[in-house]
Write a structure and sequence with these properties.
The complex is a heterodimer of chains A (77) and B (215). By secondary structure, chain A is mainly alpha-helical. Chain A is 69% helix and 8% strand. Chain A starts with a helix and ends with a helix. In chain B, strands 2-1-3-7-8-10 form a 6-stranded mixed beta sheet, with helices on both faces. In chain B, strand 7, helix 3 and strand 8 (118-122) form a beta-alpha-beta unit. Classes of the chains: A mainly alpha (77), B alpha/beta (215).
Chain lengths: 77, 215
């Protein structure tokens, strides 16, 4: 399975874990529910790619340490 | 010290309804402080009124809410309200905070070029979560508040006299504290899904222009 498909699967799994009542406001569209978002990810359109980018940004930041650095800011007075 | 604040808050679908409700909290805060508030809500969030209000009242702070792209921000019905190299000159001598997708990519820099003192905005999509069960009462939506309270902190800090950089950092701290709250052992598992989006907004909020500028 190629890397992009693995990332898609990961993102879809994360979206599926969201509660049913959660919607996301992202980009120029109105708020979307998780079914809509999953469809965009599967279609690989601009919005789907943006959602994947959010996930990759998060994973990369944990790997590089910037995520933990951001938590340090929250602990400062 | 009292300030004059111009707020644009279109209100025509759920995203803008939420932004409008959260901007309303700022309007109340500003009025209680004695600041002069120019509230362009709903249909009034249009280019003609925007330019006219700035010409007439010369606000020192401009708080823009609405859908956006790298070079522009929209008002009501998604009609362009401000656009790079078209009317960014109206932002001269002001501090701007834009809750709008991607506007810091181009519009921000162009605003500074045209004389804005500072521009705080987002260089990527501004993302927030909504509890569908609270859609008709956006101000009561605790899920959305995780995102929109840190956003409002920019304005609160500026109105209190802090610099653009200090307001940006205060907002970052708020985002970070909300992330920490979600990661603690007492959070529900589904709440942690918001963490990646909070981190995204925090990471892509930027402060352009004179970081020491204040109202």
């Amino acid at each position: 399975m190629d890397v992009e498909q693995q990332i898609k699967d990961l993102v879809i799994a994360r979206l599926e874990a969201l509660p049913e009542n959660v919607e996301i406001s992202i980009g120029s569209k109105d708020a979307l529910n998780k079914t809509d978002l999953i469809r965009h990810v599967k279609d690989g359109d601009d919005l789907g790619r943006k959602i994947m980018e959010v996930e990759m940004n998060f994973l990369r930041s944990m790997k590089e340490g910037s995520f933990y650095e951001s938590l340090r800011i929250g602990n400062e007075a | 010290m009292n300030h004059s604040v111009l707020v644009t808050r279109p209100n025509y679908e759920y995203t803008t309804r939420y932004l409008s409700a959260w901007a309303d909290k700022i309007i109340e805060f500003a009025k209680q402080r004695g600041d002069k508030v120019l509230d362009l809500d709903g249909e009034r969030a249009n280019r003609k009124e925007f330019e006219s209000m700035i010409k007439r009242h010369k606000p020192s702070f401009i708080f823009l809410n609405g859908h956006g792209n790298p070079g522009s921000i929209a008002g009501q019905a998604n009609v362009t309200l401000i656009e790079e190299n078209v009317n960014t000159g109206f932002l001269k001598e002001t501090i701007v905070y834009a809750v709008s997708c991607e506007s810091a990519k181009k519009l921000g820099a162009n605003s500074i070029e045209k004389g804005a003192k500072a521009y705080i905005g987002y260089s990527e999509s501004f993302i927030f979560l909504i509890d569908r069960d609270k859609r008709t009462r956006p101000a009561d939506d605790k899920l959305a508040s995780l995102f929109l309270d840190p956003s409002n902190q920019v304005v609160i800090s500026l109105l209190k006299g802090h610099s653009a950089e200090e307001a940006h950092v205060a907002s970052q701290r708020f985002f970070s504290r909300n992330i920490l709250k979600l990661l603690n052992s007492q959070s529900k598992q589904e709440d942690t899904g918001a963490v990646r989006f909070l981190f995204w907004d925090m990471r892509f909020q930027v402060c352009q222009g004179d970081s020491k500028a204040s109202l």
